[in-house]
Fold Tetratricopeptide repeat-containing protein.
Amino acid sequence: MPELKPISQEAIPQALEKATRYRLLNQPWQAESICRDILRTDPDNQQATHTLILAITDQFEGENKRSLQQAREVVSKLTDNYETEYCLGLIYERQARAALKRSTPRASYMAYEYLNQALQHYKNAEEIRQETNEESILRWNACIRFIKQHNLKPAPDDVREPPFLDV
């Protein structure tokens, strides 16, 4: 099988733009591939890491729980505490939305549990954010509205299990 080819350091800015563009074109697998190429050349590139997390989570609706684990592993490469908490919130929020769309048994309970995890991470991000950065507040509010809109509730005690078992 042919080997992967590296990209040059100079190509990274243009590659980052392409990754963003592919996400906007609803081709997250292409954006993911580009980000992985960037990270092979520059393993500490935070913008590529952030974009990779988004590209992976863009694929949650069609993927299995392996993608959730992949996204969490990539988050560990972020160096900023705020970004880490914010991205963890995004991961759980997107997993909740994907779980609810699958319409499997217990999907609404799983979505509620994932959203509660997202809310905790957004709360953590809010506590350490820069004063003018209110992204975590906006995401918090979106989660609360989603819970209300879909009338999500916690699982009754007799059926409550860790949310990762059904995904």
User: Anything to note?
Assistant: The chain has two domains: 8-58, 79-167. The chain is about 65% helix and 0% strand.
